[in-house]
Amino acid sequence: MPTIDVPRDLLFKTLGKTYSDEDFEDLCFDFGIELDEVTSEKMMITKEKGEEKAAGTSDLVVYKIEVPANRYDLLCMEGLVRGLLVFLKKMEAPRYKPLKPSSGKLQRLIIKPETAQVRPIGLAAVLRNIKFTQTSYNSFIDLQDKLHQNLGRRRSLVSIGTHDLDTVEGPFTYEALPPQQIKFIPLNQTKKFTAVELMELYSYESHLKPYLSIIQDKPVYPVIYDKNRVVLSMPPIINGDHTRISLDTRNVFIDITATDITKAKIVLDTLVTMFSEYCDQQFTAEYAEVEWPDGRVELYPELKYRNETVSVDFINKKIGIDETVDNVASLLTRMCLQSEVIDDKNIKVEIPPTRPDVLHACDIVEDVAIAYGFNNVKMTFPKTNTVGHQLPVNKLTDQLRLEVALAGFTEALTFALCSRDDVATNLRIDIKDIPAVHISNPKTYEFQVARTTLLSGLLKTIAANRRMPTPMKIFEISDVVLKSSEKDVGAKNQRRLCAVYYNKTPGFEVIHGLLDRVMQILNIPLEKENGYYIKAAEDPTYFPGRCADVYVNRNAIGKVGVVHPDVVRAFDLHMPVSALEINIEVFI
Fold first, then answer.
1. d(CA 581, CA 520)
2. How many CB atoms neighbour CB 464 within 10 A?
3. Are the CB atoms for 103 and 75 separated by under 8 Å?
4. Taking Cα atoms as reference points, which of 215, 253, 185, 239 lies closest to residue 115?
5. Cβ atoms 337, 355 nearer than 8 A
6. CB 384 within 8 A of CB 370
């Protein structure tokens, strides 16, 4: 979950009360958040970089507070303090309003059709007559970073640009141009760069490098201009230096570019509601017009309120309490959800624009539970009794693990994902002949498919431990994944036992002995009719004439044999390997 850093003394001053660390930790728990750490800037730098780097840094105490990932209104000190004050009944939840400017002339953002090739959505708003302090300015920047990382998915879905409105002139245009045609002075630079040069410049900068791939391969790059062709930003990478905000900025123009309209609205609403408290007219934001490529003109921010009706009986039943309608309404109001009693069974709950996390009646129930206090819910025995037990396949797995380990084999645990070569080429099999489940967008070469065999993972394990003394005897009991038209998801898991023996000689008799021991433990006799037996077979993974199918009740359940030398070399091994791999689900 995301963590925010809050100066303790400033927090207590804003809350109007000084707490001990223990008392504040209790308050955080009551509010549904967690005091994660009590530290300071000096302690944090000392921990990360050493005492020399920490010399001269601040000793002021900082609270690291962990907040729920979907509570975007708590990602800054402003929202946290506001929520706590309402929770403590020291203030009423503010009412957020979008307003038209006194001059009557709205700022306009015109979205050009070509932006559909890269980032088709653009929104805007204005914070008018705002007053920043160093603390609130830092919080303003920090909230943008957290929204970028959290809701914006590292700027891939949503990116934010904030600008000093007094340095530019509307209307603004959101365009998409070839990178060679975009040229401006980026933030914290002194000369102009083309977009191509910027991509090269930021490829060596750790802060911005992760975002370059979002647009780097696109034929056009997004850019926002003002009336005089001054560049405000090249989203989602960097703002222009011309419009940088400072402590002296009084009017802030906010642009949001995105690929998801819902998330864009949430980010815009969150940003303006959190920092509109520093405007002369508190908790208000100025409308901006957005002209879409199809000619539609819409006003943003929306700052919409919506109503939900919930049953008190439903709330009481879900939590396990017995509260009156009035008490439940009061608890919801403490969570910034203004509530009104409709009748003796129902409550109308108003969801503010700061609470996009409230999607369903269950979210409202959760807030009632938080305000009521989880520790105050009386413990009761459930009305139904159930007895849990281990799944048969897992019980068998644990029993076999113990017995195979007692036979002198060491257990390994390998990745469930592997490369296509691991399950096909390296095993001398065509990938088309394998019922493998492929990953549509693998991040690395090592994780392209779900494994269809345990053998390749064990061979890689031996390769990584070649310097260990031989013989090596290792095993694994885990699932493989196979395509299956019988399953609604198109694939099934199959529990298998795989063991390998690696030494100067193949040691087929060792692996064969392990097979006999497993069957002895399972009380399966060596006979064709109602027991097990092996039958010579050919498999490209195994040496010709040294491979057999394992049958139980006349059904093939796996293979045992000496691994083919080409397979051994493919896994960078230099001595013979014998292997056993069987399906153990047939024994359940």
1. 17
2. 10
3. no
4. 215
5. yes
6. no
Q: What are phi and psi of 531, to 5 degrees?
A: -140, -145
Region 290-299: mean pLDDT is 94
Residue type, 215: I
Contact 521, 400 (CB under 8 A): yes
Pairing of strands 107-111, 288-291: parallel
Q: Please say if the pLDDT value at position 55 is more than 90.
A: no
Distance (Å, rounded) from C-alpha 294 to C-alpha 551?
68
| Secondary structure (3-state) at 255 | strand
Q: What is the pLDDT of residues 493-515, one digit of tens each?
A: 999 999 999 999 999 999 999 99
Biggest CA-to-CA distance, the chain: 96
- Are the CB atoms for 82 and 51 separated by under 8 Å? no
Question: What are the structure tokens assigned to 438, written together?
Answer: 């492929």
Residue matched to tokens 């009360």: 17
Q: Where residue 48 falls among pLDDT bands split at 50, 70, 90?
A: low
- Residue 523 identity: N
How far, in whole angstroms, is CA 272 from its chain's centroid? 25
Distance CA 327, CA 344 (A): 11
The answer to whether residues 126 and 301 touch, using CB atoms and an 8 Å cutoff, is no
| Rounded CA separation 383/259 (Å) | 48
Q: Which of 97, 105, 122 is nearest to 254 (CA)?
A: 122
pLDDT at 234: 94
Say if residues 66 and 33 touch (Cβ distance below 8 Å).
Answer: yes
Cβ contact 107:226 at 8 Å: no
| Separation CA 134–CA 142 (nearest Å) | 12
- The sign one gets for the Cα dihedral 212, 75, 186, 125 is positive
- The sign of the torsion formed by the CA atoms of 351, 355, 359, 364 equals negative
Residue 82 clears pLDDT 90, i.e. is over it: yes
- CA–CA separation, 171 vs 169, rounded Å? 7
Stretch 378-401: mean pLDDT, rounded? 89
Both tokens assigned to 537: 């077979």
Whether residue 53 has pLDDT greater than 90: no
Residue 353: predicted pLDDT: 95
Packing angle of the helix pair 325-334, 361-372 (nearest 10 deg): 90
Q: How far is CA 455 from CA 184, 408, 461, 462, 474, in A?
A: 57, 18, 10, 11, 11
Residue 26's DSSP bridge partners are: none
Q: Phi/psi class of residue 50: alpha, beta or left (left: φ > 0; alpha: ψ in -120 to 50)?
A: left
Tokens of 544: 């010709």
